[in-house]
Amino acid sequence: MRILVQKFGGTSLSSDKARSHCVDHIARELKNGYRIVVVVSAMGRKGDPYATDTLLQLVRDNGDRLPPRERDMLLGCGEIISAAALCSLLNSKGIASIVLNGGQAGIRTDEQFGHARIKELHPERMLEHLRVGTVVIVTGFQGSAENGDLTTLGRGGSDTTATAIGAALHAEMVDIYTDVNGILTADPRIVKDAKPLPVVGYAEICNMARQGAKVIHPRAVEIAQQARVPIRVRSTFSEDEGTLVTDRPELVKGYVADKHVTGIAHVAGITQISVQAIEGRTDMQLQVFQTMARNHISVDFINVTPSGAVYTVFDQDAERAVSLLRSNGFEPAAVSGCAKVSVIGGGMNGVPGVMARIVEALTEQGITIMQSADSNTTIWVLVKEPDMAPALQALHAKFELHL
Ligand code: ASP
Ligand code: MG
Fold first, then answer.
1. Which pTM value belongs to this model?
2. Are 133 and 139 in contact, with CB atoms under 8 Å apart?
3. Scanning 13, 41, 173, 182, which has the fewest C-beta atoms within 10 Å of its C-beta?
4. Please, what is the angle between helix 158-168 and helix 218-227, to 10°?
5. What is the 3-state secondary structure (H, E, C) of 108-143?
6. Whose CA is nearest to atom 5 of ligand 1?
7. 103 lines ligand 1 (CB under 6 A)
8. What is the pLDDT of residues 283-325, one digit of tens each?
């Protein structure tokens, strides 16, 4: 049995017309000989009926008095509605389909309502239907705890449902259908000549996703990578095959082996915090990071030296972080309104000159690098928010990503 998982995002399901495009993609792949699991998100975006954010709006006025367990029951409705709508359309076109919710599809999670993790996936029930050629529609972003309670996997979790199912069923491919033509070299709203990439490695896409490219959830990529299931990120509204994500991108036609940089991503809304060492307080480093950890403030861009610690937090955590540090006897300095710009490329490891070109591109624009860090596939720089767009444009041009 050749199995294909097709995941459709909110905009792909938001209208009759959009859903008819989904049906076309399903019909085509059935003709190509695949047995198909379709994973759906909730329809549309904030404000649209049945969108996840719209459902949340329903209870917002009550000061969020809904307990997490019941909140998950509310959130789960969006995907159920999408699934039923698609099922009726498929059946009306003569394509037999059935809807399974997360639990019915065999997705067992822990009990962390709102951000549950998948513990096991029992695909037998999906397989029974696939064997007779029925299209199995699974509600994304949800599972069931040991006792049958509905749990959700965290925002954007439908991608995770899709790759987890792909891994469990040894699918040939997981197609993530969205409203863009694949993964782009940069955000096209900022970099006008950003272009879709034909193929990228898992590590690269994972970095891009974590660093602000919203096209796929990083956890979904990790699951696919472990199971070595290829992913294709593509548009519902075209026949274009989009971007292939695989562990051997160099084997795929269209891969440019000597490109050291693949894409550029960005995250704004970041505050840089600097804490100076205080004479006689040898516990400074420990105190600072334990304080952040105890208060669930996530830290990034960490740079620790004997003379102090510099790191970043999200703007919304900054005030709390600073006052916690003050009450610990430190005198932190905070610079809010910063942005993290990531230059990503699986081919940059061990290549001399990548950082030099980054510094060159930014210096030419008069942009100050406030901090930097690197791994074997990414170099990050912290800049002031107003410098973010010019930095992205300059880096995109310097590494000739438009070619
Ligand atoms: N509907 C959920 C959300 O908006 C899950 C998803 O779309 O991936 O977060
Ligand atoms: Mg999504």
1. 0.87
2. no
3. 173
4. 10
5. EECCCCCCCCEEEECCHHHHHHHHCCCEEEEECCEE
6. 156
7. no
8. 889 999 999 999 999 999 999 998 999 999 999 999 999 999 9
